Amino acid sequence: MKQFAGFPAGKTHLTPIPAQFFSELLPEIDHLGELKVTLYAIWFLDRQEGEMRYISYEDFWADQAFVSGLRTAGSDPKIALTDALGRAVKRGSLLLALRTDTAPEQALYFLNTVRGRATLKAWQEGKWQPDLESHLPAGLKDERPSIYKLYEENIGPLTPMIADELRDAEATYPVDWIADAMHAAVVNNARTWAYVLAILRNWQERGRDDTYRRDAPKTGRKSRKSRKGEFDDFIER
């Protein structure tokens, strides 16, 4: 058994799970595979954008880090995945839609939430089709360190004020930009948040390039943008 090293210091991305999962579903789920696919679907859909969110059979299967954890000694991983998904659908935690035929590889899944039920209904009525462009790939091995951890490792100690600045930046700029701007600060031996922010503002105003300058123009503070998640209706603000 591989020893878990523990959760990292600093702020990380959290996946919201409604309390009803623990009070109603968790006591009833008696199959490890079913529990894993249900939690994975919640995690995956939280990383999608837009109102209409789904996870396909291919999404599950493409993440071999996840699939490898489903198999037991001598078992076929595809059979294990299909069985686990079937159990989650039968229980009602996941909703099933078949795109072309009855093959499991053609299946789409939605969480049994208000949004999930509405999306399934729209699909059944022909009012919605999966948008591959807005469907973001995700994988357990693809999880990157949070910008808070990157800041601590490359710029300096994380103070409450800096944490607020990072939160605003995360809502304003692509995460890849923030990580690259921090890298630029290290390369140019200018390890300050002001320098990182100047790079980000310069990229936003003039377009992204690979030139990092100390005199990058500064703009006004950006307002924080909200990101509507799958379980926003369940969360008290």
Brief overview, please?
This protein is mainly α.
What gross morphology would you assign?
globular
Mean pLDDT: 82
Order of helices and strands: HHEHHHEEHHHHH
Helical percentage: 40-55%
Strand content: 5-15%
Uncertain runs are 211-227, 233-237
The tally of domains stands at 2
* Strand order in the largest sheet: 1-3-2
The largest β sheet comes out as: 3 strands, antiparallel
Total beta-strand segments:
3
Number of helices: 10
Radius of gyration: 21 Å
Distance between the termini: 39 Å
Structural class of the secondary elements?
A: mainly alpha
Account of the 3D structure:
- This protein is mainly α and 237 residues long.
- It has two domains: 19-141; 144-206, Arc Repressor Mutant, subunit A (Orthogonal Bundle), CATH 1.10.10.
- The protein contains ten helices and three strands.
- It has helices at residues 19-25, 32-46, 57-62, 64-67, 77-91, 114-124, 147-154, 160-172, 175-187, 193-206, and strands at residues 55-56, 94-98, 107-111.
- The radius of gyration is 21 Å and the shape is globular.
- Mean pLDDT is 82; it is low at 211-227 and 233-237.
Name a few traits of the molecule.
single chain, 237 residues, mainly alpha, Arc Repressor Mutant, subunit A, 2 domains, 3 strands, 45% helix, globular, disordered C terminus
Per-chain topology:
Blueprint: H1 19-25, H2 32-46, E1 55-56, H3 57-62, H4 64-67, H5 77-91, E2 94-98, E3 107-111, H6 114-124, H7 147-154, H8 160-172, H9 175-187, H10 193-206
Antiparallel strand pairs: 1-3, 2-3
Helix pairs in contact: 2-5, 7-9, 9-10
